[in-house]
Amino acid sequence: EVRNLASRSAQAAKEIKGLIEESVNRVQQGSKLVNNAAATMTDIVSSVTRVNDIMGEIASASEEQRRGIEQVAQAVSQMDQVTQQNASLVEEAAVATEQLANQADHLSSRVAVFTLEEHEVARHESAQLQIAPVVS
What is the DSSP letter of 42? Predict the structure, then answer.
Protein backbone atom coordinates (compact mmCIF):
# COMPACT_ATOMS: atom_id res chain seq x y z
CA GLU A 1 0.00 0.00 0.00
CA VAL A 2 2.91 2.36 0.67
CA ARG A 3 4.18 1.54 -2.79
CA ASN A 4 0.81 2.23 -4.25
CA LEU A 5 0.61 5.50 -2.37
CA ALA A 6 4.13 6.42 -3.48
CA SER A 7 3.25 5.55 -7.05
CA ARG A 8 0.12 7.70 -6.93
CA SER A 9 2.11 10.54 -5.33
CA ALA A 10 4.70 10.30 -8.11
CA GLN A 11 1.94 10.28 -10.72
CA ALA A 12 0.25 13.27 -9.07
CA ALA A 13 3.60 15.09 -8.93
CA LYS A 14 4.09 14.47 -12.68
CA GLU A 15 0.59 15.76 -13.39
CA ILE A 16 1.23 18.82 -11.22
CA LYS A 17 4.53 19.39 -12.99
CA GLY A 18 2.77 19.13 -16.38
CA LEU A 19 0.06 21.53 -15.24
CA ILE A 20 2.68 23.98 -13.96
CA GLU A 21 4.60 23.77 -17.26
CA GLU A 22 1.36 24.29 -19.20
CA SER A 23 0.52 27.27 -16.97
CA VAL A 24 4.00 28.73 -17.49
CA ASN A 25 3.62 28.30 -21.27
CA ARG A 26 0.23 29.96 -21.21
CA VAL A 27 1.55 32.82 -19.06
CA GLN A 28 4.42 33.29 -21.53
CA GLN A 29 2.00 33.28 -24.47
CA GLY A 30 -0.23 35.73 -22.61
CA SER A 31 2.78 37.92 -21.91
CA LYS A 32 3.68 37.90 -25.62
CA LEU A 33 0.08 38.78 -26.51
CA VAL A 34 0.11 41.62 -23.96
CA ASN A 35 3.42 42.90 -25.37
CA ASN A 36 1.99 42.71 -28.91
CA ALA A 37 -1.15 44.52 -27.77
CA ALA A 38 0.98 47.21 -26.09
CA ALA A 39 3.01 47.66 -29.29
CA THR A 40 -0.20 47.85 -31.31
CA MET A 41 -1.67 50.40 -28.91
CA THR A 42 1.54 52.46 -29.17
CA ASP A 43 1.24 52.34 -32.96
CA ILE A 44 -2.41 53.36 -32.74
CA VAL A 45 -1.59 56.28 -30.43
CA SER A 46 1.19 57.34 -32.80
CA SER A 47 -1.17 57.12 -35.79
CA VAL A 48 -3.86 59.09 -33.98
CA THR A 49 -1.27 61.75 -33.11
CA ARG A 50 -0.20 61.95 -36.77
CA VAL A 51 -3.83 62.18 -37.91
CA ASN A 52 -4.42 64.91 -35.33
CA ASP A 53 -1.37 66.83 -36.60
CA ILE A 54 -2.52 66.44 -40.21
CA MET A 55 -6.01 67.64 -39.28
CA GLY A 56 -4.44 70.69 -37.62
CA GLU A 57 -2.44 71.41 -40.78
CA ILE A 58 -5.56 70.99 -42.92
CA ALA A 59 -7.48 73.36 -40.65
CA SER A 60 -4.66 75.90 -40.86
CA ALA A 61 -4.45 75.60 -44.65
CA SER A 62 -8.23 75.91 -44.91
CA GLU A 63 -8.13 79.09 -42.83
CA GLU A 64 -5.41 80.51 -45.08
CA GLN A 65 -7.47 79.67 -48.15
CA ARG A 66 -10.53 81.27 -46.59
CA ARG A 67 -8.58 84.47 -45.94
CA GLY A 68 -7.19 84.39 -49.49
CA ILE A 69 -10.64 83.90 -50.98
CA GLU A 70 -11.95 86.74 -48.83
CA GLN A 71 -9.19 89.02 -50.14
CA VAL A 72 -9.94 88.01 -53.73
CA ALA A 73 -13.65 88.72 -53.15
CA GLN A 74 -12.80 92.16 -51.75
CA ALA A 75 -10.54 92.88 -54.72
CA VAL A 76 -13.27 91.82 -57.16
CA SER A 77 -15.76 94.03 -55.31
CA GLN A 78 -13.37 96.98 -55.48
CA MET A 79 -12.78 96.34 -59.19
CA ASP A 80 -16.54 96.31 -59.71
CA GLN A 81 -16.87 99.65 -57.93
CA VAL A 82 -14.02 101.17 -59.95
CA THR A 83 -15.55 99.82 -63.16
CA GLN A 84 -18.90 101.38 -62.29
CA GLN A 85 -17.18 104.69 -61.45
CA ASN A 86 -15.30 104.56 -64.75
CA ALA A 87 -18.55 103.90 -66.61
CA SER A 88 -20.12 106.94 -64.91
CA LEU A 89 -17.10 109.06 -65.79
CA VAL A 90 -17.25 107.89 -69.40
CA GLU A 91 -20.93 108.82 -69.55
CA GLU A 92 -20.18 112.23 -68.04
CA ALA A 93 -17.31 112.73 -70.50
CA ALA A 94 -19.59 111.79 -73.39
CA VAL A 95 -22.20 114.31 -72.23
CA ALA A 96 -19.52 116.99 -71.80
CA THR A 97 -18.11 116.21 -75.26
CA GLU A 98 -21.55 116.50 -76.79
CA GLN A 99 -22.15 119.80 -74.98
CA LEU A 100 -18.77 121.14 -76.17
CA ALA A 101 -19.56 120.05 -79.73
CA ASN A 102 -22.92 121.82 -79.53
CA GLN A 103 -21.28 124.96 -78.14
CA ALA A 104 -18.61 124.83 -80.87
CA ASP A 105 -21.32 124.51 -83.53
CA HIS A 106 -23.22 127.39 -81.96
CA LEU A 107 -20.08 129.54 -81.77
CA SER A 108 -19.17 128.64 -85.33
CA SER A 109 -22.61 129.69 -86.56
CA ARG A 110 -22.31 132.98 -84.62
CA VAL A 111 -18.85 133.71 -86.03
CA ALA A 112 -19.90 132.76 -89.56
CA VAL A 113 -22.01 135.94 -89.65
CA PHE A 114 -18.85 137.99 -89.78
CA THR A 115 -17.10 138.13 -93.15
CA LEU A 116 -13.67 139.56 -93.75
CA GLU A 117 -12.28 140.96 -96.92
CA GLU A 118 -9.65 138.82 -98.56
CA HIS A 119 -6.76 141.20 -97.85
CA GLU A 120 -7.85 141.42 -94.20
CA VAL A 121 -7.81 137.63 -93.94
CA ALA A 122 -4.25 137.54 -95.30
CA ARG A 123 -3.15 140.30 -92.91
CA HIS A 124 -4.86 138.49 -89.99
CA GLU A 125 -3.12 135.20 -90.89
CA SER A 126 0.32 136.84 -91.10
CA ALA A 127 -0.28 138.50 -87.74
CA GLN A 128 -1.17 135.10 -86.31
CA LEU A 129 2.07 133.62 -87.66
CA GLN A 130 4.12 136.40 -86.08
CA ILE A 131 2.47 135.92 -82.70
CA ALA A 132 2.71 132.12 -82.71
CA PRO A 133 5.58 130.79 -80.57
CA VAL A 134 8.41 128.92 -82.24
CA VAL A 135 8.55 125.28 -81.23
CA SER A 136 11.89 123.53 -81.56
Answer: H
